[in-house]
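Dock D-arabinaric acid; give full complex structure.
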Amino acid sequence: MLSPSHSATVQQTGCLSAEDIPLVVSETVSSCQVIDLHTHLFPPSHGDLLSWGIDDLLTYHYLVSEFFMVAPGDITHQAFFSMTKSEQADLIWEFLFRRRTPISEAQIGVLTTLQKLGLDDLIRNKDLGPIRSWFQNQNPSEHAENVFRISKVKYCVMTNIPFDERETSKWVRDTTSPIVNEKFLADDLLPQTYDKERFKTALRVDPLLNGDWETISNCLEQRGLPLTLEGARSFLVAWASVYQAEYLMASTPEIFGYHETDTGPKGKDKSGKSWPTATELIDQVMIPVAKRLGLPIAMKFGACRGMQPGLDPCGGGDGVTVADTRPLKKMCQLYPRVKFLATFLSKVNQHEICVMGQKFRNLHIYGCWWYLNNPSMIESITRMRLELLGTAFTSQHSDARIMDQLVYKWEHSRRSITKALVKQFQQLMMTGWMLTKEDVEKDVERLLGGAYTEFMEKKL
Ligand code: RAT
Ligand code: ZN
């Protein structure tokens, strides 16, 4: 809601004055429902796959990495990961929140989350016990809905990995349930009762981009499919239908080549025959499946997996690398009718990828991913994107792994997006352009999900 004085200005002229901009933009951004187009969340009906609550928040991999920077040397990675989750959380609380000022983005994020959940008094006492008790008293389904409401997330897209048995067991009865004629048998599908308006799905296909035929062929074998590229296509078609996927997605390995930059097969099978290359798996499996099902492909570039293997148990061992943008350029050129969504992890890649975003009608840039999901970087990257792309991009996705993280990731992102937009609108108004509150609402809605929907719906 606008404050009375600002409402008055708007009502008289229909147009905003330069002084109105900060408040109007901040109120519009903070009240707009967002589409969160990449998360690692699951519905409460998927039981232990859904992470939520204070112990999960505190043992999030960003915080585990930060803990090890300051923890005593005798707490080894091995010793830490053999503790219970609550013991790990206790240590992180002690070292990062009590002995030091919790000033990093991930640390402030925990506190913003608790504050927005209404736990201000408990934060003041810095006592983890009562915070833990509060979470223990929440019902997971009601809590998830509360988090959606507080963070104003209309829906989130999950990451659904057909190569991961822990996940597939929530959708299909057995690890050996067969795929016949590109389908699972109806009797093998487990009923899904979750709220499909809140949780959408995406089919994750990393082993294709990794050229990891071993993982793929093991899964084909389990499902009674031939160990061929055709078998791989049937596998993905069957899973896309189980999940009702909104898009295919993958992150690339650190060294990722495609066509002229592909370095060849990544291994051999037992008979000594080379595995298919990543290029073959992309061109002959991923692209044909995307075309056939009419699904876009979301790609994430620039993760450097396993930089610190000691942190791998919590998913925190990965680093960042400047990615080669040529493979994406090549895919956009070769397949102008296939839609690609892309995000890059390195700050260094951001300018290059903005320019690429202007050149290809089948490319949509989204989000400030992972190590970029920090206020200063979101603000500067969003500003650059506004300058180069107008509102034809998606400003953020949360990548939340813990349900409660939606609260802080969106609260903090909204603040940074507001700052970037205010500056850009002020530039616009210096030209004498008449801007209404409706214009601002339309632009904000685009940045927070509308541009994604427009891209998904547009005909190429
Ligand atoms: O952001 C993260 O939490 C990372 O660990 C990755 O999972 C990344 O988001 C990915 O999707 O690969
Ligand atoms: Zn992710």
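Observed: Residues 251, 300, 303, 315, 370, 399, 401 surround D-arabinaric acid (ligand 1) (CB under 6 Å).
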